[in-house]
Design brief:
- It is a single chain.
- The protein is of the alpha/beta class and 457 residues long.
- It has 21 helices and twelve strands.
- The radius of gyration is 25 Å and the shape is elongated.
- It starts with 6 loop residues before the first helix and ends with a helix.
- One of its GO terms (molecular function) is ATP binding.
Length: 457
């Protein structure tokens, strides 16, 4: 199968392998939540190399993991080396020293997938790797790649107090594909339908590849989200389980945020718990992002939102009715959650529009010092899109996921809200599914964009 995207990741790994073949050992760490494509990338990378790929399993003892690792070495290496492999190893230090010995002359790639599972209740596995790398790896032609889906654990390993701090030559976090990057998975979908597919699937390769371009959005959602055992219905708990557990109230906080609670006090109120630790953990693991009003004149209070579009969809639309869907009532649930789906779509479209505005800055459509974000003041006024060059509003924008064309009435509303800014805007912009009518498009200070501009522009 063809590798889609991940060119930067593959190039970085390839450069590291070139150093290995020249006699410089390389330690690489690749991490990111489940379904993000780590395994696909690394098996593609390992395809033409002398390599061993080992995936650690949950809740296995050290003895069991070490025996399985020895079996993997025996099965995957060539005959002249295979005969040297023992039935098992006494420790992970012994196992790592052994593979280092196999790389004295010929380059060897060893991938330890889901490395955080290799703790075994003893010393942290990262400390073991660090000790072996420091004391026993010198000029061997070894590339050791550690991967993990437990994002918070992996970043702790790499952090100032972690065993891998400043040890790895390659540190690469893999995140879901952006809307533009994900387009390669569904190039034939009409732009508006692709936005709908992305809003449900997020930037996950498996989800996007299961979306059928020959079916309508409603038909795809029925199969993938509203059918018992559907991929989009069951995948979110698996993704979350690597990092989070029920004891911290993480699901309650994410549900509150996906349902529209954006301020700290409202999130805590809906979740009915203290959220300081929970929110911090969610931010560190990449499930939540903090959003601040752009410029010096907006609100000083930040907003919080779910940073993963698929998970936001699952929490907003599917989570509370998952049991009903599993019980065969998916069609009814899809009807009763249609409003939540549309609200989620609007939020995804708005975020994609801001990304599009940033690309316009990169393409020199605006001054190079222009920054793009949101603006709000208390709870009285909010602007979807603000582009600032210094203190000057270069552009004020509105995002609408609606089929009807926008009119001059929408321009008047945006102008009234932008009057709260300290300086008048130079341009007004609208991102809309239905575009603009002739009266609005005829204004010289107005720019209009459609899903085609976001997706293919």
């Amino acid at each position: 199968m063809t590798l889609i995207g991940r060119a930067a990741e593959l190039a970085e790994l390839s450069q590291a392998w070139a150093r290995v073949t020249a006699g410089r050992p390389e330690l690489a760490v690749v991490w990111g939540r489940r379904r993000i494509g780590k395994t696909f990338l690394l098996t593609h990378f390992a395809g033409d190399k002398r390599s061993v790929y080992f995936t650690a399993t949950r809740q296995d003892s050290d003895d069991r993991q070490l025996r399985r690792f020895a079996a993997a070495l025996h099965e995957q290496l060539e005959a002249e080396v295979r005969d040297l492999v023992p039935e098992t190893f006494p420790t992970w230090e012994a196992a790592l020293r052994f593979v280092a010995g196999l790389a004295r002359t010929d380059p060897l790639l060893v991938v330890l997938d889901e490395a955080p599972r290799l703790t075994g209740g003893h010393a942290d596995f990262a400390d073991t790797v660090s000790a072996v790398w420091e004391n026993h790896v010198r000029g061997q032609r070894l590339m050791l790649v550690l991967t993990g889906s437990a994002v918070a654990v992996m970043e702790q390993m790499l952090g100032p107090k972690g065993g891998l701090h400043r040890r790895a030559g390659v540190e690469r976090r893999m995140d879901p594909f952006s809307l533009v990057e994900a387009r390669a998975f569904q190039p034939d979908l009409p732009p508006a339908e692709f936005v709908e597919a992305y809003a449900a699937c997020g930037g996950y390769p498996l989800h996007l590849s299961r979306w059928s371009p020959d079916r309508s959005t409603a038909e795809n959602l029925q199969e993938l989200a509203f059918t018992p055992g559907g991929l989009l219905l069951r995948d979110a708990p698996d993704i979350l389980s690597e990092d989070l557990d029920w004891r911290g109230g993480y699901e309650r906080v994410l549900t509150a945020m996906a349902g529209g609670a954006r301020r700290r006090s409202r999130i805590a109120g809906r979740a009915q718990q203290r959220i300081d630790y929970t929110l911090d953990r969610l931010k560190r693991a990449g499930y939540v992002r903090t959003v601040r009003s752009l410029g010096s004149t907006g609100s000083s209070d930040p907003l919080y939102e779910v940073a993963d579009d698929y998970l936001a969809y699952w929490f907003r639309v599917l989570r509370d009715d998952a049991d009903l869907i599993e019980g065969g009532q998916g069609p009814a649930v899809r009807q009763r959650t249609a409003g939540r789906w549309q609200a989620h779509l609007a939020q995804v479209f708005e975020s994609a529009a801001r990304d599009h505005a940033r690309r316009l800055v990169a393409a020199e459509a605006f001054p190079p010092e222009t920054v793009v974000g949101r603006w709000w003041k208390d709870e009285t006024v909010e602007i979807d899109m603000l582009a600032l060059a210094g203190d000057q509003p270069v552009l004020v924008g509105e995002c609408r996921w609606q089929a009807a064309p926008l009119t001059v009435r929408d321009l008047g509303d945006l102008q009234r809200r932008s009057a709260h800014l300290p300086e008048p805007a130079l341009l007004y912009a609208f991102w809309s599914r239905g575009g603009a009518d002739a009266t609005l498009a005829g204004h010289s200070e107005v720019r209009t964009f459609t899903p085609a501009d976001l997706v293919d522009g």
